[in-house]
Amino acid sequence: LSERARDVAIVGGGVAGCTAALYARRYGLDTLVLERAVLGGQAAVAVRIENYPGFPEGISGAELAQRIHEQAAKLGVEFVTAEVKGLARREDGTWLLHTDAEPVQAIAVIVATGAAPRRLRIPGEQELLGLGVSYCATCDGFFFRGRPVAVIGGGNTALEEALYLADLCPRVYVVHRRDALRADQYLQVRAAARANIEFVWDSVAVEVLGREQVEGLRIRNVKTNEERVLEVSGVFVAIGHEAQTEWLGSYVERNNGFIVTNERMETASPGLFAAGDVRDRPVRQITTAIGDATVAAYYAYYYVADFKARQQA
Ligand code: NDP
After folding, report:
1. Nearest atom within ligand 1 for CA of residue 284
2. What is the reported pLDDT for 42?
3. 156 lines ligand 1 (CB under 6 A)
4. What is the pLDDT of residue 238?
5. Which of 100, 107, 163, 260 is the most exposed place for a label (fewest CB within 10 A)?
6. Which pLDDT belongs to residue 3?
7. Is the CB of 177 inside a 6 Å radius of any atom of ligand 1?
């Protein structure tokens, strides 16, 4: 067991986690961030972020993440590389985080583990990842200029990606499992107006074809069961995101795996907060993650102060 209980332990070193740490530290809390892989989270893979206020020329995701991390580290936030596997409430009311390294004890915990793109789980998807299969058109689209591509999904992300790719690629297939889009009307209108975007309705992807690189996508019409191959060099999967929250057991309430909180970022368990993309909410942006994190740190601070006052009483 770590030698002392931290005031707050933050799980996840992305934009939300680092921002929560920065604020918690400024409230004078003894703050530890646990990150299993590389700091920066999803933002760090974005080539260029153009909707982050204050940076009209845009900023690379890696640089933005690095700057937030540096700001937190400078204030004395401690960063540890460890994967959190589970947590438990101790008898004294503190939390115990089980990790693949030393366990960590903390009065408050902020979960900021983010979300990851949902996978199709079809043959070829994993094998050709980075060789034509991508989960981010704005990151990878440029490599496919002049070549036909497919986007899978019918939501806002799928249509935004299709519109982006339509500027680079001669043909963009949008493969959707139903005959009606989920995306907002304004995106539907814009996509319908593009001659090189072709909708493939009622169809699911069954296999990504190719050896060294993507050579095609086998799709199946769910109404007729007919299969055919789209000759594409790129497959962009845009079927939403999913959050890994099983490790939180019954300490939180979930919606589709995302953690339900109130406006204070409080989960179903006192002292356990969630912020950023892991939280159940409709908009998942860097700006909203930062907002969540700010609020979570604020109420974590009051929780820790109350906890300590009760202990002394
Ligand atoms: P969504 O969950 O909104 O859409 C996912 C799409 O993928 C749906 O069309 C869904 O089909 C389809 N899908 C899901 N699972 C599968 C599967 N296994 N096989 C095939 N198709 C599948 O995710 P998005 O990433 O598009 O958007 C996430 C959130 O972010 C939304 O709230 C969205 O509005 C928001 N957003 C907003 C933007 C904006 O306002 N400009 C831009 C991007 C995102 P079905 O429709 O049949 O369920």
Report:
1. 30
2. 79
3. yes
4. 97
5. 100
6. 64
7. yes
Is 136 an annotated catalytic residue?
A: yes
> What letter would DSSP give residue 41?
G
Distance 77 CA to ligand 1 centre (A): 36
Helix (H) or strand (E) holding 175: strand 172-175
How far apart (Å, rounded) are the C-alpha atoms in residues 35 and 189?
A: 41
User: Which residues of the chain carry a pLDDT beneath 70?
Assistant: 1-3, 46-47
CA distance readout (Å), 147 to 97, 135, 143, 233: 48, 17, 9, 6
Q: Which candidate, 302, 174, 296, 194, places its Cα nearest to that of 238?
A: 174
Q: Model-level pTM?
A: 0.81
**For 272, phi and psi rounded to 5 degrees?**
-115, 115
Helices in 152-285 by DSSP H: which ranges? 156-166, 185-192
Place of tokens 């368990």: 269
User: What are the tokens at 139?
Assistant: 């990151």
Distance CA 226, CA 95 (A): 54
Cα(135) to ligand 1 centroid in Å equals 13
